[in-house]
Specification:
This protein is α+β, with helices and mostly antiparallel strands. It is built from 4 helices and 8 strands, in the order αβααβββββββα. Strands 2-3-4-5-6 form a 5-stranded antiparallel sheet, with no helix packed on it. It has a 3-stranded antiparallel sheet with strand order 1-8-7. A hairpin with a 2-residue loop joins β2 and β3.
Length: 151
């Protein structure tokens, strides 16, 4: 017999075990009812970050040929992958302490719609609470992107 309470408890236990693993990688996705080309063109342009990625940028500007964002952790440099036909929007964020973090981001074609997939990797020393906050921020950002771009 299916026991909903024990299934929920097991899910919570497994989720906790995943969050405690310092090498955790999550692939967070959002389906958007727009073509991959449309979404890629918007996402790949750093000036659009403040419109949908509050977890990264409250504002962004060009400074001496680089993109500088006002983030929750202070001023960060943001460098996107070169323009490409594959939907790759990977970007490196250089934190105020000089640490560079690669953020894999893909726009995957699915005909009249697409999937946007962000890979969140748990860095060494990140607590369960901080990793969960990062996860929630990425999910919220992807949902903001969907609301912004869908007709």
């Amino acid at each position: 017999m299916f026991d909903m309470a024990s299934t929920a408890a097991e899910h919570a236990r497994l989720r906790e075990a995943v969050l405690m693993d310092a090498s955790t990688t999550l692939h967070l996705n959002q389906t958007i009812a727009r073509t991959a080309d449309d979404v890629y063109a918007f996402v790949h342009h750093p000036a659009n970050l403040p419109k949908w990625a509050a977890g990264l940028s409250a504002g962004i500007r060009r400074d001496a040929g680089r993109w500088v964002a006002d983030s929750p952790v202070g001023e960060v440099d943001v460098e996107f992958a070169e323009d490409n036909p594959f939907g790759v929007c990977d970007h490196v964020v250089t934190l105020p302490d000089g640490t560079s973090v690669l953020n894999p981001l893909r726009v995957l074609d699915d005909g009249p719609r697409c999937d946007v997939v962000f890979t969140l990797r748990r860095r060494d020393g990140v607590t369960d609470e901080a990793f969960e906050a990062d996860r929630a921020a990425v999910v919220a950002d992807l949902e903001s992107l969907r609301r912004l771009l869908e007709p």
